[in-house]
Design brief:
- It is a single chain.
- By secondary structure, the chain is mainly alpha-helical.
- Helices cover 62% and strands 0% of the residues.
- The radius of gyration is 29 Å and the shape is elongated.
């Protein structure tokens, strides 16, 4: 249990709460500098410790997400942990910046039909007059009432 070098700390030592907060806010440069200054270690060692913490945090989040997905019956293949898309190598660089409306439109249609079917399963019926229209009508009625009262008083 005797540590011959009291200055050096193991790489997997727990990070201070302030450093963890900086990492969660994605302020990595400040976290590395602060950790290096607080614990008198090099910037490289601080970066290695922070990278290890980030990796452990991502793995933990993926495990939690997988557990929730399994409880809900969602297959693991449907969950994408990689949100970065790979660029197309054979895509023309001039066409690369073109907006693809059909895919987003199709995604929106899929989302809309999914929400509609879910609401139908729950027995929800769409109101005859939307809420925003009811609100506008109430504001118009109140304005007309105030106008009529002021017209009668001062007119």
């Amino acid at each position: 249990m005797f540590n011959p070098d009291p200055i050096s700390k193991p790489i997997n030592a727990k990070l201070p709460k302030a450093i963890i907060t900086m990492i969660e806010k994605n302020n990595l440069v400040m976290a590395i500098k602060t950790l290096a200054a607080d614990e008198n270690i090099s910037m490289e060692e601080a970066k290695v410790r922070i990278d290890a913490y980030e990796t452990a945090l991502k793995i933990e989040q993926q495990q939690k997400l997988s557990k929730i997905a399994n409880k809900q019956g969602i297959p693991n293949e449907a969950i994408s942990f990689d949100r970065e898309q790979e660029p197309d190598d054979d895509a023309d660089p001039l066409v690369k910046n073109r907006v693809k409306t059909t895919q987003s439109h199709q995604d929106f249609q899929t989302l809309q039909t999914g929400v509609d079917s879910r609401l139908k399963d729950l027995g929800y019926k769409k109101p005859l007059i939307p809420f925003w229209l009811k609100r506008l009508l109430m504001i118009a009625v109140i304005m007309l009432g105030i106008f009529w009262i002021l017209w009668r008083v001062f007119g």
